[in-house]
Each structure stands twice: as C-alpha cells, then as structure tokens.
Amino acid sequence: MKKALLQIVHRAIVQALTSYLQATVTFFLFLVFVGYVFINLVLSQSLPTLFFRVAAGERTAMLTFLTASQGLPEYKNIVTSAEEIYGHSIIAEFRDQLSRRHDRIGQLDQTLAINPKARDVLLELSRLYAEEKNQVKTNDYLTKAKKIDPGINQ
After folding, report:
1. Is the domain of 42 the same as that of 52?
2. Are 85 and 57 in contact (CB under 8 A)?
C-alpha cells in the first residue's frame, strides 16, 4: 500500500514537472517568436534611404548604388539591371565618375608629394578611398591626417 502510494505520488510529480516544463518551453518559444517579429519590424523600417531612392528611379542614386556595390558577387547583375532601366549611358556616366575620381586621386597624390603634411589633402584622399571601399588606404590617410591635426574626429 505504501509503495503504491509512493508510485502514485511519483507519477503525479513527474506529470506536474513535465507539464510545467512544456509550458515553460512553449512560453520561451513564444517570446523568441515575438522578439523575432519585433526585430524584423524595426529593421524593415530602417532600410537605407538609398534603396528607396533607387526604387524611385533617381539616376544619382543608381550611380551611388553602382559605386557601393562594386566588388559584390551580384555586381554584374546590378550593372545589367541599371542598363535595362537607364540605358547604356548610365554605365558611361559611372565610368566617367570613376575616371574623375582616379584623376582627382592622382592630383592629390602630386600635391601630397610637394607637401606631405597637407591635412585637407590627406582627408580628401581618405574620403575618396572610402568611396572606393579601400579601407586600408582610407585608414592610412585618415591616420596621417590625425597625426597632423589631432582635433579631427572622423
């Protein structure tokens, strides 16, 4: 009789713990789901404005997007899409923009050869290399500019 009572109590405890554990896991999964939905809502509301400008058909936004997407595996598809939307002139304009940037870098390099402590030249080179996604040169020129003017806070 005592043994049977202990077994009944044991089963009741196991059943209660199992039920409690199931409820806890269900509640935890619900919280994870709600958190996931909340994060998706927040992130979807903070899409970069460039995306909306490209979607609206702004030519300058597409040029910015082409610059930003260089080096991505999808770059060729992006160029093809840009050509379909804007025609071949967008690629010519983009290449012209790149050429002007490289010419400007060459001019600034010549200026820097004459005056290696030209802070504004170093900052401009840092900005231009940042546009090209060349992080090493961006940081190098920014570091040199900060050595000359520690007040720079970029």
Report:
1. no
2. yes
